[in-house]
Amino acid sequence: MPRTWSSLFTVSDDTKEKLAKGIDVSRLILHYGWVPFVIYIGYTRSNPQPSLIKLISPLA
């Protein structure tokens, strides 16, 4: 008799809720953390590195 993935992994409803919550939290972190992460990488990898005041204030 062939085994299927569903027969190998039985997951309780509590585990499904925890997985769904973890996925929602990771989506939230990715959604709000992406742009600051890209700015940080651009700031630390650029040559010459701009001053921090020029990074924060567009008028400086």
UniProtKB/TrEMBL annotation:
Protein's UniProt name: Tom7-domain-containing protein
GO BP of this protein: protein import into mitochondrial matrix; protein insertion into mitochondrial outer membrane
InterPro entries: Tom7
Keywords from the named record: Membrane, Mitochondrion, Mitochondrion outer membrane, Protein transport, Transmembrane, Transmembrane helix, Transport
PANTHER family (UniProt xref): MITOCHONDRIAL IMPORT RECEPTOR SUBUNIT TOM7 (PTHR34944)
Similarity-based family: Belongs to the Tom7 family.
Keyword Transport: yes
Pfam families per record: Tom7
GO cellular component, one term: mitochondrial outer membrane translocase complex
Compartment(s): Mitochondrion outer membrane
Membrane topology according to the record: Single-pass membrane protein
